[in-house]
Amino acid sequence: MLTGLKNAFRIQELRGKILFTIAMLVLYRIGAHIPVPGVPFQGMVDLFQGAGASVASGAMALLNLFSGGALSYVSVFSLGIMPYITSSIILQMLQSVVPSLSALAREGEAGQRKITQYTRYLTLGLAILNAIGYLFLFKSFGISFAGAGAPEVVFDIMIVGTLVAGAMLIMWIGELITQRGIGNGMSLIIFANIMAGLPQAIFSSVTDTAGIIMTVIVFAVIIAVIPLIVFLERGQRRIPVQYAKRVVGRRIMGGQSTYLPIKVNTAGVVPIIFASAILYFPAQLAVFFPGIGWVQAVANALSSGWINWILNVGLIVFFAYFYTSMVFNPDDTADNLKKQGGFIPGVRPGKATAAYIKNALNKITLPSAIFLALIAIVPSIVFSFTGNQLIQAFGGTSVLIMVGVVLDTISKVESQLKMYDYDGFFK
Asked: What does the pLDDT read at residue 48?
């Protein structure tokens, strides 16, 4: 590991990407601690920690968690990465039902740029709605955004504009990391949010002897679960493929045996992120109706409790199949094998091969989706009985996202190292 890290910093291009990624994440965390102008900082602290602590439960706690704690004091980055993720989910789901978007997705890089542009526009719209909703929500709890003799409407416009600008800046930072850094920018931002809340969660957990014992147990369970997550992320179903011999000029091509690798967890951590975003959406809508009790009750029920657990399992399994079908098309794979003279032993080329691959994909997707769902909801159930903050901040979802992001980033670094004939982190 240390040798691989040392080799990574020896390569100028790779060193620049790593340092650029770190600099962007540091910039993001700095922005997450800069309050929006005109916001009474102490009033927001009291709202989340003092007399208004009940506000920080349920839906608001979920919103605050995904913003890395930035929402609790209305920082520039209070909206977090969720408007962009929500818009990405909407665009990806629309590709399955809107023919024009489906055609754009098949056009390659040019079509993807157009879809990315639509995603940005939708992110802007969601950010504006979220910012206005937050403004009305905090006003409903008696927080006044005015000062210096200026009309309150001026501060309202300034706060909404600052929050929207912060959301768009987060999106820009994430895209910059993806293009010029190492790893997926949006995933790394979520990773940074999780890590930001870890120290405070540990301190709040070890307040007494019982808390210390629970903290030790939590970390022991995490250490035991990490190898299972790595095994799931690295596991493959290898389908044997045989290439027929053919004569090309004076040379005989093909005739070799290989395999078609299918990841056990093809969707990665995307189903959990998508499911969380869907369950987070009612909490976003609830901020527009702070005075309506049943709306807040529905948002809180969907954000925690047995309804949240059941919906989480269902959505994670659904998105595991949905995202897998988007990134791995059995029909295209079977067609490519047929064109290259390849076939699966005992299976006829064409539709039979596509059906065989699809069946194998479904068989490995179900257990991986169930494992993802258990990792996501079991810590939530334990937290509902123990109230330990460490479990909430560093539960199964957080660990799974962190391990997935770390493995993905290491894979990107490894591919760069192998280009320069260096040994990677895994030999």
From this structure: 59
Q: How much is the pLDDT for 56?
A: 43
Strand 342-343 to 246-248 pairing? unpaired
- Are 158 and 169 a contacting pair, CB within 8 Å? no
The CA R_g of the chain, rounded to the nearest whole Å, is: 24
Yes or no: say if 119 and 81 are a contact pair by the CB < 8 Å rule.
Answer: no
What pTM, to 2 d.p., does this model score? Answer: 0.75
Cα–Cα dist 3/157, whole Å: 52
pLDDT of 422 > 70? The answer is: no
Would you say residue 51 has pLDDT above 60? no
pLDDT per position as a tens digit, 316-368 = 888 888 888 877 888 888 888 887 777 888 888 888 888 888 888 888 888 88
Tell me 342's DSSP state. Answer: E
> What are residue 237's DSSP bridge partners?
262
Distance CA 24, CA 418 (A): 25
pLDDT of residue 295: 73
User: What does the alpha-carbon distance between residue 214 and residue 209 come to, in Å, rounded to a whole number?
Assistant: 9
2-419 — its CATH code?
1.10.3370.10
Whether the pLDDT of residue 395 is over 70: the answer is: no
Quickly list DSSP for 201-265: HHHHH-SSHHHHHHHHHHHHHHHHHHHHHHHHHH-EEEEEEEEPPEEETTEEE---EEEEEEETT
Residue type, 310: I
CB 220, CB 56: distance < 8 Å: no
Closest CA relative to residue 389, chosen from 397, 379, 399: 379
Closest CA to 246 of 160, 167, 343, 335: 343
